[in-house]
Amino acid sequence: MLRYTEKVTIKVSKKQKQTLDKLRSRNIKVAQFIRDAIKEKINREAEELKPKPKKIKCPF
Q1: pTM of the model
Q2: What pLDDT is stored for residue 1 in this prediction?
Q3: Could you tell me if residue 51 is inside a domain?
Q4: Which of 2, 22, 50, 56 has the most CB atoms at less than 10 Å from its CB?
């Protein structure tokens, strides 16, 4: 099982808070929902996050 050791505090809008409260009222774990959303976003944009190799121009 994963151990979560780091804490991150985020600010959300009032509308986002209401949406998260709706999820909580429907017995959806909000913390896991947010972790899954972050993981999905990182996987989708993984290529953009990786450093791109620099092309070396050879004059010869």
Answers
A1: 0.67
A2: 66
A3: no
A4: 22
